[in-house]
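2024-03-11 09:14:02 DEBUG pipeline.ingest accepted 1 chain
2024-03-11 09:14:02 DEBUG pipeline.ingest length=812
2024-03-11 09:14:03 DEBUG pipeline.predict start
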Amino acid sequence: MKLLIIGGVAGGASAAARAARLDSSAEIIVFERGEYMSFANCGLPYYIGEVIKQRESLMVMTPEKFKGRTGIEVRIQQEAVEINPDKKEVTVKNLQSGEVYTESYDKLLLTTGSSPLIPPIPGVDDPDVMTLWTIPDVDRIKERVDGGVKNAVVVGGGFIGLEVAENLVERGVEVTLVEMLPHVLSTLDGEMSCMLEDKLSENGVKLQLGNGVSEIKHDTGKHTVILQDGTQIPTELIIMSVGVKPNNELAVKAGLNLGERGGIKVDANLRTSNPDIYAAGDVIEVINPILNTPAMIPLAGPANRQGRIAANNIFGAKDTYNGTLGTSICKLFDLNAASVGINEAALKAVGKDYLKTYIIPASHASYYPGSEPLFMKVMFEKSGKILGAQVIGRDGVDKRIDLLASAIRTGMTVSDLAELELAYAPPFGSAKDPINYVGFVAENIIKGDTIVISPEELKADDFLLNVSEEDEALCGTIPGSVNIPLGKLRDNLDQLPKDKEIIVFCKVGARGYLAERYLREQNYNVKNLSGGYMTWKLFNRDALNTNVKYAPCAATSASCSVFNTETPDAPLELDACGLQCPGPIVQVKNRLDAMTEGQTLKVTASDAGFYNDLPAWCESTGNTVVSIEKSDGLVKALVQKGAKSVPSSSGALTTMPKRTTIVLFSSDLDKALAAFILATGFATLGHEVSIFCTFWGLNVLRKDHPPKVKKDLISKMFGMMMPRGAKKLALSKMHMMGMGTAMMKNVMKNKNIDDLPTIIGQARLMGVKLLACEMAMNMMGIQQAELLDNVELAGVANFAALAEKSGPVMFI
């Protein structure tokens, strides 16, 4: 067997290596017209940004090393210029010597890849208009950047364009990004990609969207990019990244069948229209397995797998390629964006029926530091078949998109997502992973348990009901909406119209769902806004007040003018890290309440949403954000108490909140029952109820089967002697070695009274907050991992602040 492979990067190198393993006696020759084989294309932008320090790191394999490992000859800088299928010969030109020769084959594999698309724009042929595709390309660009280029224009907002823009910014280059489409990264839908656009702007990238290049002018080393609307951008460097085209010239000459977009047509075995010629990689047309339609999807992962499959079939090991889903991910500064399958725009274009949901879960357990919101959009059929998904966030994006890609590839439905058993520990996820939540929500939509509406479907006359807490609503709400917190909804039904459709929402949709279910039981016409207020903001950036800008302020800088002139007294400090919304805002509010007018508070928070929430809250409450910045995954702000007039409320319910606080000191079953029954009773009256569990009361919060944690001997002894969780509690009187407690539980069951774990669950569902005394936990050797999920740790100061603002305070 003599196999010729034309193209030595990605698919070609993978095919050659596989072929050598299948038949070590075969004669295999690889032709590569470039100077390098099998280099790291995807790493090129990061070499410009000096994230990858050494140029040699980009060289995955050299011809010499490859021959030593496989015995295969790789001829670099030798270009195949013609294929003669009748004679089964390839004509090759040595680009170094100019020699032209022919090489025969038994089988031929084309992995010629793709090349950057250069649009026919006047001036585009200037040497300072560059592309980034090969090692020589990156050498030229890096040489210019190392030489002190001050500004650059990147044309194209796809993967390469975004990565180049980011890395140029990291090198101190002022960047303008030009994209002919209305948004960047076309694999995403517009409302999702706007988060990337905000991130670009936040890092100083100037955006020109929906505005293509019409001309490039050059004048003695100076360049001007002229856009379609007449905008002129002076620049020193221009990088074109508007797309790619398949390198199909050899296939055209050989008479092979091509698809509509120029990709070589292949069958499931990657055989072309000529039975002795195979093809793989960016040059071929693949099948989109979701829509079963032809597609061009140039990605490195699929190219490598195609090379392997082609080699299998060439050497008789039957294998099939089942299409490309287009799973992809992109890093943009501290944000990650990923997608798989079909986006909504494409589904609409082909007239496909679909359902969709937005969910915004935490990347891992919210009480563990570093938890970040994940913005997830999933499209699916009524049958439960998953059509596509998009995920954006700072943490855990890759894990979730890979799970969704695996689910689509294996034919799983959204119901299967709900059943997935996924690894859980607080630093990595939650007991109910975001993927599980996708399944839960999608199942509810399919079954009709929830009727969702997307932000773009809202009408001007819709009655909008915000069931978030007052502090959250102060951070931002949909204009014209009425704010009635979920815990107060039952007492304010007279505020709601019976003759209009009610669109209920909260911050991300979960409490909106609870409100929707309750209101439907009360015979209201109600829908839940998918993804809540956070998703509405993605669709309505222009409607939000974005005029106020806050100058970054290094909070540790001794020369900061904020500290030296405007606020002569040293600011107080608040560390709100580890808290999720509205935790940081509540902490800020509590601290400001204790301060005098004009004093300043320096705040650090790990909740990314705090960056937008704080200015909105201050605007609503009459306080002032002096400065705010993001640094190392933290939000750092300086807030001055007062100095602004408070705007009048618009449609918000303004009654003072009713609060009740219960101290649970006992681990007796009857006393714990009393505490939680009282808590649910006050919750039904619209009270914000908190149960502060301390000393023996901590046992009520313990899990039945806690994870193993490392403890000293005394802590272990405490743990063994105390009851483990609500199911193990005994009566304070008439326990009678367990007989009395068993009798009480049996009576409760016969009289249809819920047991304590069920009552605890109901209380939490109604918004009752469970607080664990951190000091008592330390004394008794109880660790947070042993407690029920989402129990908050608190100290005496937290309890005192709650008690001060409460009506009834009860000690049980």
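2024-03-11 09:14:41 DEBUG pipeline.report The first strand starts at residue 2 and ends at 6.
2024-03-11 09:14:41 DEBUG pipeline.predict end
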